[in-house]
Amino acid sequence: MTITQNTSAPLVVVVGVTGNQGGSVVKALAESDKPYRIRGLTRDVTKPAARELAAGGVETVAVALTSDNAAGAREVFKGADIVFLVTNYWEHLDVNREVAEAKMIIDAAKAAGVKLFIWSGLESIIKVSNGKYPNVHHFNGKGEITEYGRASGIPFVNVQSGWYAINFWKLNGMKPKKVEDGTYVLALPVGPQTLLPVIDTPNDYGLFVREAIESPEFGAGSEVLTSGEDITIGDMISQLSEITGKKIVYSRISDEDFTTATGLPPSVALEVLESLKYHEECGYYAGKTTEASRRHLARPTRTWADFVKSTDWSSVLA
Ligand SMILES: NC(=O)c1ccc[n+]([C@@H]2O[C@H](COP(=O)([O-])OP(=O)(O)OC[C@H]3O[C@@H](n4cnc5c(N)ncnc54)[C@H](OP(=O)(O)O)[C@@H]3O)[C@@H](O)[C@H]2O)c1
Fold it and tell me: What is the tens place of the pLDDT at every residue in 295-306?
């Protein structure tokens, strides 16, 4: 890691530094030949991920970014040139809380005079689908936060996150399942032609944040659409099968069967179901392509095949 402590370098404050996206931002900025100071925020500076970052030169600071802690937020943004924000809907499943906390953070960063605010947003699916899919709260809330950030007057960039490659390895209902003859089936309620901007988030998401900071094509007011590779679910499964040597087939199942198979609480299963249907019908990025966002990256991203090759599938394809 080459993170500087020199006060002439811009200070980047990273929310969610111990997580997939925030950690990736640190990795990408440390790879840059431009110097950065990095302040990483976590609720627990003693956790292993925070200790590792501190050992690499990140100033780790403990703060809980909750709506009742605006004073704490203002304090940790003092002196910041750039702020990166990701919110974690899945920790609490409360979209009102996600939106309220993000608004508080944007206000605090603005009060601190931050010059560039980089937000990890998503599309508002309820809006893009004209109300057809109203329950994808982790997208809709982030769409609302994007609107608030843009209207706030703070220099604001939306670096939307693609579909995590690890979803196919970690999430219930998204993993291939073993069937009686010893082969595997990935069963989802959409067609195999459904296209996803798949990204190896810890490795590559931060590259796009670095691009937003360093490339004159981006910056305040812009939008960056992240993706390691835009690939159909059918092609992902064929490649997974070919690379691992396991027979894996794709199967389209009914909405009802998918909902049951996830094993998730009904409201969460509905959210996942609607998001998949939306990706199939409207496109993950509402029909916008990722090509322009990939043009000024400092290094190539990992493809789905690269991710598959670098991942231990033994627990999934047991
Ligand atoms: N899965 C996908 O395909 C996908 C695609 C696009 C977007 N997303 C979005 O990605 C988001 C999750 O990002 P991630 O994967 O980077 O999460 P993650 O790996 O679970 O990390 C969450 C980070 O947020 C920090 N954090 C959470 N609440 C906090 C609070 N109140 N105050 C301070 N820090 C707090 C955590 O810090 P500590 O725990 O260290 O305190 C941690 O560093 C979700 O909102 C999801 O909707 C996911």
Answer: 999 999 999 999
